[in-house]
Amino acid sequence: MYERLFEHLLRYIHLEAGERAILLSHLQLKKLSRKEFLLKEGQVCSGMYFVIEGCLRLYSITEKGSEQILQFGIENWWISDYLSFENKLPSP
């Protein structure tokens, strides 16, 4: 289930078996449907997300009411509202 994540991590770091077990104990698989939100305005981001399949986008609504895309989370990469996550602040 987490093979892609570990393949990604092992490109950058070495993990002992015990370290891998510790990491696994802190991971949670989250499956979203098309058009479902991972995080909404006003919520505090609670994690960093590794995209196993599909594509996610982080966007804001401009003063004129149009969507402005800030990030794409493509397969085998990360996405998060990092400022909300790190500072425990509501996401704009």
Account of the protein in words:
With 92 residues, the chain is α+β, with helices and mostly antiparallel strands. The chain folds into 2 domains: 1-30, no CATH class; 31-92, Jelly Rolls (Sandwich). It contains 3 helices and 4 strands. The strands form 2 sheets. The protein has a two-stranded antiparallel ribbon. Strand 2 and strand 3 (67-73) form a beta hairpin. The chain starts with a helix and ends in a 5-residue tail after the last helix. The mean pLDDT is 94.
Mean pLDDT: 94
* Poorly predicted sequence stretches spanning 5 or more consecutive residues: none
What's the number of extended β-strand segments? Answer: 4
Structural class: alpha+beta
Going by CATH, what is the homologous superfamily of the largest domain?
Answer: Jelly Rolls
Number of structurally distinct domains: 2
**What string gives the helices and strands in order?**
HHEEEEH
* Distance between the ends: 32 Å
Strand order of the largest sheet: 1-4
Biggest sheet descriptor: 2 strands, antiparallel
Helical content stands at 25-40%
What is the CATH first-level class name of the largest domain? Mainly Beta
Shape summary: elongated
Strand content: 15-25%
Q: Looking at the chains present, what oligomeric state does this protein adopt? A: single chain
Question: What's the helix count?
Answer: 3
